[in-house]
Amino acid sequence: MPKFFIKTYGCQMNERDSEQVAHSLVARGYERVGHESEADVVLLNTCSVRDMADQKALGKMGMLGRLAKERPHVVFGFLGCMAQARGASLLKDLPHVDLVVGTQKFHRVADYLDELVTTKAARTECAPYHSKRAMDDLRFSIVDVDEEVGSQSTIRDQQLMPGQATAFVSIMQGCNMHCTFCIVPQTRGAERSRSIAEIVAEGRDLVLRGVKEVTLLGQIVNLYGRHEFPKIDNKSPFVQLLESVNEIEGLERLRFTSPHPIGFRDDLIDAISRLPKLAEHVHLPLQSGSNKILRAMHRAYTAEKYLDLVERIRRARNGVAITTDIIVGFPGETDDDYRQTRELVEQIQFDNAFVFRCSPRRDTPAAKSPDQIDEHVKEQRNQDLLEVVNKSNRRILEGLVATEVEVLCEGPSKTNRARLTGRTRTNKIVVFEGNEELIGALVNVRIHRANGFSLYGTPVMR
After folding, report:
1. How far is CA 44 from CA 56, 143, 301, in A?
2. Strands laid side by side in the 281-283 sheet
3. Which one of 48, 162, 227, 397 is most buried, counting C-beta atoms within 10 A?
4. Is the pLDDT reported for residue 1 higher than 60?
5. What is the 3-state secondary structure (H, E, C) of the chain?
6. CB 112 within 8 A of CB 100
7. pTM of the entire structure?
8. With left for phi above 0 and alpha for psi between -120 and 50, is residue 145 left, alpha or beta?
């Protein structure tokens, strides 16, 4: 049977989508391989949030053109957000691309590949007997970026690696918020949520297969089900879901990402305070500390309301870690606007943050603004804010030295295969010595030192 390779760009939702595709292919008898040079099918699951992600995927596929000449039977495909946004136009400059599948059609990929693999193999066999022009006439590609009603319910199975202890579970698709910098509503469509029963069933199946930690995924995860399902006992559908997943026997930890500040009502704050499996980590995108810029972004909250929310979350759960996303260089951002962001970040003292330079995305209001910021200024602000974030991160990590933390061991360290690595409940990376029997287990680790963004320690055996 054919061998396949998938490279994923972008967010955790893209990773989850890739695993869905991988599972469907393995179920058909395909074999997953670790490098494109070994594969009969090469798929790039793409991201469109920033221009750099687009360019990386396009550049990678361009380089794969050489492989297409050496191995003409290989099927090449784009999946995901960039595929959704660009559609058939991707075939114009990359003639070796055979498949373009959008964000609502991942469950169709296996069927399309069966057809393409068969067709391309036959075409390759005919090549010695026909002219290049005749072969071009036989060229066959599939493009499917249409919307599909009920596509959120097709997100079910996923491929797990041996010993895998963590997994993502997509609970919804799409976004209705229309932030002015974001292309996601165009690539992922409107909000559509799976049922609680479907999600809990997937979670139970994952736990039976050895998973101990589940992360619930949604474009704006805490707005889950607001259009489809009713409140019960004044609890939102998202809080009802958290309670249901928290009850899964054998599940040790529960996380969710990525939320929106406007979705944190009293019922969710209460859930954070009382659900024991819900990990002490909240990723809470800020984007800017300037109210003027927040209004221009259509973020629907102020810096003051954001700060109050942070304080409420910290009161609700002792020791909770708060991480964030911040954009610098949004159109019209003055030195004073940036100063307000910097001061708010210093005041909050985030555990960590992803700081991005604003990347204009096609057809978004931000891209059309005449008040674009110079790239040099964006880079200066990016580096300056990263230093503020890194300082608070170092302080928090150093405060964990000489303490004992619970770590879910995920496997060998990427930088040193002789060591193991995992994460604390507050999502801190911990590297420690130990044998492979600890993979997938909860391990108490005594922290000896902090270095960069990681902690180092020794397992505590009781």
Report:
1. 10, 14, 36
2. 281-283, 321-328, 352-357
3. 48
4. yes
5. CCEEEEEECCCHHHHHHHHHHHHHHHHCCCEECCCHHHCCEEEEEECCCCHHHHHHHHHHHHHHHHHHHHCCCCEEEEEEHHHHHHHHHHHHHCCCCCEEECCCCHHHHHHHHHHHHHHHHHHHHHHHHCCHHHHHHCCCCEEECCCCCCHHHHCCCCCCCCCCCEEEEECEECCCCCCCCCCHHHHHCCCEECCHHHHHHHHHHHHHCCCCEEEEECCCHHHCCCCCCCCECCECHHHHHHHHHHCCCCCCEEEEECCCHHHCCHHHHHHHHHCCCECCEEECCCECCCHHHHHHHCCCCCHHHHHHHHHHHHHHCCCCEEEEEEEECCCCCCHHHHHHHHHHHHHHCCCEEEEEECCCCCCCHHHHCCCCCCHHHHHHHHHHHHHHHHHHHHHHHHCCCCCEEEEEEEEECCCCCCCEEEECCCCCEEEECCCHHHCCCEEEEEEEEEECCEEEEEECCC
6. no
7. 0.89
8. alpha
pLDDT score for 462: 66
Average pLDDT of the segment spanning 424-431: 98
Residue 131 has pLDDT above 60, yes or no: no
Q: What is the pLDDT of residues 41-61, one digit of tens each?
A: 999 999 988 888 889 999 999
Query: Residue 347: pLDDT above 90?
Result: yes
**Residue 138 predicted with pLDDT over 50:** no
Encode pLDDT of 64-94 as tens digits: 999 999 999 999 999 999 999 999 999 998 9
Domains defined along the chain, listed by start: 3-144 (3.40.50.12160), 151-398 (3.80.30.20), 404-459 (2.40.50.140)
| 426, 351 contact by CB (below 8 A) | yes
CA 335 to chain centre: 31
pLDDT of amino acid 134: 44
Residue 297 pLDDT greater than 70, yes or no: yes
pLDDT at 390 over 80: yes
So what's the pLDDT on residue 50?
80
d(CA 462, CA 459): 10
* pLDDT tens-digit map of 396-423: 999 999 999 999 999 999 888 889 999 9
For the cut 50, the answer to whether the pLDDT of residue 137 exceeds it is no
CB distance 136 to 96 below 8 Å: no
Contact 320, 313 (CB under 8 A): yes
Q: How crowded is the C-beta side of 171, counted as CA atoms within 13 Å?
A: 34
Structure tokens at 141: 């590609």
Please report where in the chains the tokens 């910290």 appear, as a residue.
314
> Whole-angstrom distance between the N-terminal and C-terminal Cα of the chain?
48
